[in-house]
Automatic annotation (TrEMBL):
Gene3D superfamilies: P-loop containing nucleotide triphosphate hydrolases (3.40.50.300). Keywords: ATP-binding, Nucleotide-binding, Transport. One of its GO terms (molecular function) is ATP binding. Pfam families: ABC_tran, DrrA1-3_C. SMART domains: AAA. This is ABC transporter. It comes from the Bacteria. Residues 20-250 form the ABC transporter domain. It comes from Bifidobacterium moraviense. Transmembrane segments: none annotated.
Amino acid sequence: MANSNTVLGTRAQEAATPAISVSKLVKRYGDMVALDHFDLEVRRGEIFGLLGPNGSGKTTAINCILALLTYDSGTIRVFGEPMTPASYALKRRIGLVPQNVAVLNELTVEENIDYFCSLYVPRKADRTPLVEEAIEFAGLGDFRRFRPGKLSGGLLRRLNIACGIAHRPDLVFFDEPTVAVDPQSRNAILEGIRRLNEAGATVVYTSHYMEEVEEICDRILIMDHGRHLALGTADELKTMIDAGERITVESPDVADETLAAVRALGFVVEASYDGRELDVRCRRGEHNLVDLLGVLRAAGVNIGHLTSRPPTLNDVFLELTGKALRD
């Protein structure tokens, strides 16, 4: 019974240990500080979104976690163990799907997956079922004998993913996996990431497509200038900012004085009218729509189609960083 309790206690401790723990990480390039006492914790079993504008330090942070870069100070632990360039057992538990497709053009789809799997699984007999599993997972069965040059952009992305996950990693980094692919391929890739996660893999996901991040990520960290800015679920992040809904009103007759009255409302951040549509950005408030409609009705404005859109993750990002995600 004591042995059974010990095993259960060990498993509970392992489950409670973060997949990734980064504390006060500093990385400098000369006088430039790429990571400024950066903190990060990724729980086991989650899909974790890492967002930041270009130059924010995302890639540097990932490369430090993977021990591909040295750093000036701080600590990095993966599955509770220190991560170093010589942490080969840890590295076998990690998969990387880079933004730029990294496959060998001389090899077929099947040969590529087998080659990258062999970096972690040396015995051919052990690799064969893993390669077949990766081919099926990525939907590449009809293309196994194709070389990369014959594949569409979406299929190339799927091959890139298959090469990164064939060894069944416990932790997978996806860096912009859906760049420049068609909607059908994008949906297939996102569904594949969900299935990986449901099978037990922890996922770190970076993307410039906010709707993807909001759709699949359990928690999201926003960073800029090498620093941790905000962390939470998409809904939690939206409560951290002052931005409220965006209201759009179709109308052919919003006069200048009516527009001025709308702009004078205390909750209005910005209002514009193009002769057909009134667009109003609001701060958070309980009666914004009612108060706006009161002004429009008092002015005799004819109101057509009306929409009220809650703040988006992009609004959060813009308010916290002052930049659009692709800046």
